[in-house]
Design a protein that fits this description.
The chain is α/β, with parallel strands linked by helices and 334 residues long. The chain contains 13 helices and twelve strands. The radius of gyration is 19 Å and the shape is globular. Keywords: Signal.
């Protein structure tokens, strides 16, 4: 791989900082930051009734998924045909080991710039979640491993899915910065506050996938639920009301599903046989996907969006952290 790196100018740094709305990774507020940006609907919706709080960004206009471009459908098929045993996940400790061995790889931090500059993996490039990902798709190598981190793993999983659909070899760092990297043994030896620069290269991506990725982030910016992260509290309202407003999809393995799942959930395990089953999902309502921690479900949610479905990922998963279904004390059935 031949990449040329150069340091960001002071003006670029100021520009990125001005665009960022996230607090610094070193202060107390950033320690509480999650990948949903906010687990509640936008302020404009805060005064809505309880029924309105269930509103999604396009429920009235998306009864049937739009037919994706052939190259997008093929990319989804390849995604599952080539699904690795690690499910596009890697632990912080495994990344540290690869760093120690000086393995050829690219580290991408998708947090906002203020969080990134407060502390990040040494050598990581800052490509914030949003349109910047699309702008960088053809700069990100497709011939070396890409390891992605965010705050708690859900945004990183979305970006990991997009990178793999675009032909990269990407994995999400389990737990992100807050729940993974910063808590791992020997983290201090593998992190830095020094700006790493920007990527420059030429790795073509199909126009259809670039368009799909652009549409994805445009929809994310407009969504009632920030970054497509669906709060457990809003899902509870629907489950209690038994209103059938959503198709609820578990993507855990069969044993985990049987041990305890959210009432009314379908189960399609995340594996190499998943692709045709996703295409058979109901098209008459939005889909809320959940996994153990919300990271695998974020991959699936992203793929469903690329296929034209209106989909969301359950914030924190069924039992990932305090945001999760079980973390809130909500019931499961067996």
């Amino acid at each position: 791989m031949k990449l040329r790196y150069f340091l960001l100018t002071a003006g670029a740094i100021l520009s990125l900082s001005a665009c960022s709305s996230m607090p610094s990774g070193q202060n107390q507020m950033d320690a509480m930051q999650t990948d949903s940006m906010t687990d509640a609907p936008a302020a404009a919706d805060a005064t809505n009734s309880s029924d309105d709080s269930m509103q999604t960004d396009s429920m009235d206009s998306m009864d049937v998924p739009q037919t994706p471009d052939t190259s997008v459908s093929e990319a989804v098929s390849m995604y599952f045909e080539n699904l690795p045993e690690d499910n596009h996940m890697i632990t912080p400790e495994e990344v540290f080991q690869k760093m120690d061995l000086n393995e050829n790889m690219v580290l991408i931090d998708v947090r906002a710039f203020d969080a990134y500059k407060g502390g990040h993996l040494e050598g990581a490039y800052n490509v914030p979640y949003g349109p910047e990902i699309v702008q960088s798709l053809e700069l990100i190598p497709d011939d070396v491993p890409i390891y992605v981190n965010c705050y708690t793993g859900q945004l990183g999983s979305q970006v990991t899915a997009i990178l793999n659909l675009a032909g990269k070899n990407a994995a999400n760092i389990d737990g992100g910065w807050n729940n993974g990297i910063s808590l791992a043994d020997n983290a201090a030896a593998h992190t830095s506050q020094e700006q790493s620069g920007i990527l420059e290269g030429s790795y073509p991506v199909s126009p259809a996938l670039l368009t799909a990725a652009s549409d994805y982030f445009a929809a994310s910016a407009k969504s009632t639920y920030s970054s497509f992260n669906f709060p457990a509290s809003d899902l509870l309202k629907s489950v209690k009301a038994n209103d059938g407003a959503y198709t609820l999809l578990s993507v855990r393995d069969a044993a985990s599903y049987q041990a305890g799942h959210i009432e009314g959930a379908l189960n399609i395990p995340f594996d190499d046989a998943m692709s045709p089953q996703l295409s058979a999902l109901p098209t008459d309502k939005p889909i809320v996907v959940y996994s153990q921690t919300g990271q695998i479900s974020s991959q699936v949610m992203t793929i469903l969006r690329f296929l034209g479905y209106e989909s969301y990922t359950l914030s924190g998963g069924i039992d990932g952290d305090s945001r999760s279904w079980i973390g809130n004390g909500y019931p499961v059935v067996r």
